[in-house]
Write a sequence for this structure.
């Protein structure tokens, strides 16, 4: 301590202030490494010298770049409250599936109260790889679900968060994949009609999965969700955020028609699906930043089990506030703790079996 005091005193005398190196005990990310495959990634992070009782978030980005320059970006966040001086976590999520030659890079930032404290490059293994192409499944006849808004006025500048979920039966023990494609929402209002293209989805029922997770693949415009074979009463099907235009009436007579093609690579699977629509005064169209809850319970990220699949559990990167704090009445929701909106009716469908080979 005496030596430290002498050093600090000497630094003050010489005017050595901002240029001095950060001390070893500063709050920082001590480790950030990721192992990657063509279908998933596992990110290990450790932060040290935290202030107990403070709220933090580790925000990360992973990039998969092809020789043409086309880049897929994965954006994620790990919010936590420091109960110890050190925090460690491993996040395992689906990725892609990627195709062709890929080179990887990434960074992670430790954020406290909206301020970036430390940023490091993620150590990646491997740095590059070759991935085989996965052909898209053929289209199945569309399933259609209709509902109405509740008549509460929706102000321009807000967002409508459409989210659909399902339950499944007949899933084989070895697992299977389900696909949503060519999905659209037709919204008829007093001020006119809107036809909205909904992101695709791939849901993997995995025999090795012990919890549910999801990411949004911006390269293919698809939700990629992995769940245990046992499933859940609510599994995320797809989600879509719509900025409300200035001329949107939003005060009654709004009818929603959501449709899409559902297919599976195993026969005998049946689904029941429904959707909701909630209004948020502040939101994001960066779907990975939303940290959408992938199932009603048993989620890998440990989200509150009482909240429904489709709930945005993420935080606004600008002010650090949870997106859930911005929910308000309108569409199919009443605000408060209704983060997904009230449900439409449930539609039963038997997805078309599009593969006869091994389900995975």
């Amino acid at each position: 301590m005496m030596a430290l005091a002498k050093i600090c005193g000497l630094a003050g005398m010489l005017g050595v202030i901002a240029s001095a190196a950060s001390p070893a005990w500063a709050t920082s990310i001590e480790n950030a490494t990721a192992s990657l495959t063509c279908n998933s990634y596992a990110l290990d992070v450790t932060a040290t010298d935290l202030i107990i009782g403070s709220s933090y978030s580790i925000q990360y980005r992973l990039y998969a770049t092809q020789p043409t320059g086309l880049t897929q970006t994965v954006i994620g966040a790990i919010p936590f409250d420091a109960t110890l001086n050190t925090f460690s976590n491993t996040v395992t999520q689906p990725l892609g599936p990627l195709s062709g030659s890929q080179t990887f890079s990434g960074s992670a930032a430790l954020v406290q109260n909206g301020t970036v404290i430390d940023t490091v490059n993620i150590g990646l293994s491997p740095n590059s790889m070759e991935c085989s192409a996965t052909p898209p499944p053929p289209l199945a006849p569309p399933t259609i679900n209709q509902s109405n808004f509740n008549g509460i006025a929706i102000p321009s500048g807000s967002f409508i968060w459409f989210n659909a979920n399902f339950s499944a039966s007949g899933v084989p023990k070895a697992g299977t994949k389900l696909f949503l494609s060519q999905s659209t929402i037709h919204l008829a209002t007093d001020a006119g009609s809107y036809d909205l293209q909904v992101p695709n989805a791939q849901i993997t029922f995995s025999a090795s999965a012990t919890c549910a997770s999801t990411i949004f693949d911006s390269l293919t415009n698809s939700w990629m969700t992995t769940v245990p074979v046992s499933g859940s009463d609510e599994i995320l099907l797809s989600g879509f955020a719509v900025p409300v235009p200035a001329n949107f009436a939003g005060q009654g007579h709004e009818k929603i028609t959501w449709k899409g093609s559902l297919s599976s690579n195993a026969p005998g699977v049946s689904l029941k699906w429904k959707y909701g629509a909630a209004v948020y005064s502040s939101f994001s169209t960066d779907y990975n930043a939303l940290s959408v809850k992938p199932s009603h319970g048993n989620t890998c990220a440990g989200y509150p089990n009482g909240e429904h699949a489709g709930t945005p559990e993420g935080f606004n990167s600008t002010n650090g506030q949870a997106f859930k704090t911005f929910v308000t009445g309108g569409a199919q929701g009443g605000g408060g703790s209704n983060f997904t909106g009230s449900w439409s009716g449930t539609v039963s469908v038997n997805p078309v079996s599009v593969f006869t080979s091994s389900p995975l």
